[in-house]
Automatic annotation (TrEMBL):
<protein>
    <submittedName>
        <fullName>Transcription antiterminator BglG</fullName>
    </submittedName>
</protein>
<dbReference type="GO" id="GO:0006355">
    <property type="term" value="P:regulation of DNA-templated transcription"/>
</dbReference>
<dbReference type="Pfam" id="PF03123">
    <property type="entry name" value="CAT_RBD"/>
</dbReference>
<dbReference type="InterPro" id="IPR050661">
    <property type="entry name" value="BglG_antiterminators"/>
</dbReference>
<keyword id="KW-0677">Repeat</keyword>
<dbReference type="InterPro" id="IPR004341">
    <property type="entry name" value="CAT_RNA-bd_dom"/>
</dbReference>
<dbReference type="InterPro" id="IPR036634">
    <property type="entry name" value="PRD_sf"/>
</dbReference>
<feature type="domain" description="PRD">
    <location>
        <begin position="65"/>
        <end position="170"/>
    </location>
</feature>
<dbReference type="Pfam" id="PF00874">
    <property type="entry name" value="PRD"/>
</dbReference>
<dbReference type="GO" id="GO:0003723">
    <property type="term" value="F:RNA binding"/>
</dbReference>
<dbReference type="InterPro" id="IPR036650">
    <property type="entry name" value="CAT_RNA-bd_dom_sf"/>
</dbReference>
<feature type="domain" description="PRD">
    <location>
        <begin position="171"/>
        <end position="280"/>
    </location>
</feature>
<dbReference type="InterPro" id="IPR011608">
    <property type="entry name" value="PRD"/>
</dbReference>
Length: 280
């Protein structure tokens, strides 16, 4: 296995006899090494195949900022999550997760906590990822001695969800995009408003629509019938209720899907939230 590029003393890009490129990690494995040198395979602690041409450059940028221990931690977290969720996770998660953990630990050190606005959605709709993410916080604490806030569980859970290999099927992605666009248009025309696409409210709304569409296409929608919540929200937000009925009619017509009262209640809440700011 020959070295193609040295990132630092602990990380290098290599190529095997089949010309397969992979990143290898290990304490001191690239110390005083140059491209073309043989790698000492006994020093390799972590290895993974590079998923894209730009991966190596992005990794190089991260290694200038992020300690080696955090990079190893991110790799270990992905291995644990892959086992716990029983699914393959995209290798690109390695970069985004390492960057997120490093930034979260930096914010904690600087006393700058950040709340996750999707905390309750993640807990309710992505229970598996959320439970794994809570274990991730424990692993981070064990390695670094720092306990990240519970809101980070939701953030990490979203990273895990987005990295599922089976999320990237093109046909499903096209349908998801269509559903999100159609529902967004229904809300826009019902209220006769133009969304501020840069706002946090709009971003939160679109995120909810994306996850809803994903779960709908997979047949994983919440089947709870929370009559009390539904009636309360319906009474409090009558216009959002009327708008949600149009969304329901669209889904029944195009996808033969019946929304439960629980799903309708959450739709009303999100519709009210995203439209109230625009109207005001």
């Amino acid at each position: 296995m020959l070295i193609k590029r040295v990132f630092n003393n602990n990380v290098a890009l290599t190529e095997d006899l089949d010309h397969t490129e992979m990143v290898v990690m290990g304490k001191g494995l690239a110390f005083q090494k140059r491209p073309g040198d043989e790698i000492d395979t006994e020093k390799i602690e972590k290895t993974f195949i590079t998923p894209s041409e730009g991966f190596a450059n992005k990794l190089s940028e991260l290694l200038d900022e992020i300690p080696y221990e955090i990079m190893v931690l991110a790799k270990d977290i992905i291995e644990m999550a892959t086992s716990e969720l029983n699914t393959e996770l995209n290798d690109s998660l390695y970069l985004s997760l390492a960057d997120h953990i490093h930034f979260a630990l930096t914010r904690l050190k600087d006393g700058i906590p950040i709340k996750n606005a999707l905390m309750w959605e993640v807990q309710k709709f992505y229970k598996d990822e959320y439970q794994v993410a809570r274990k991730v916080l424990e692993l981070i604490e064990a390695r670094t001695g720092q306990r990240l806030p519970e809101d980070e569980s939701a953030s990490i859970a979203l990273h895990l969800f987005n990295a599922r290999q089976d999320c990237s099927r093109m046909e499903e992605t096209v349908k998801m995009t269509a559903i999100v666009g159609d529902i967004s248009d229904i809300v826009k025309y019902h209220y006769s408003i133009n969304f501020d696409v840069e706002s946090m409210n709009y971003s939160r709304f679109i995120t909810h629509l994306r996850y809803f569409a994903y779960r709908m296409l997979r047949g994983e929608l919440n089947d709870d019938q929370n009559d009390m919540l539904y009636e309360q929200v319906k009474m409090q937000y009558p216009e959002a209720f009327e708008c949600s009925r149009k969304v329901q009619a669209y889904l029944e017509r195009e996808y033969q899907m019946q929304m439960t009262k629980d799903e309708l209640a959450y739709f009303m809440i999100h519709i009210q939230r995203v439209t109230s700011r625009e109207k005001s």
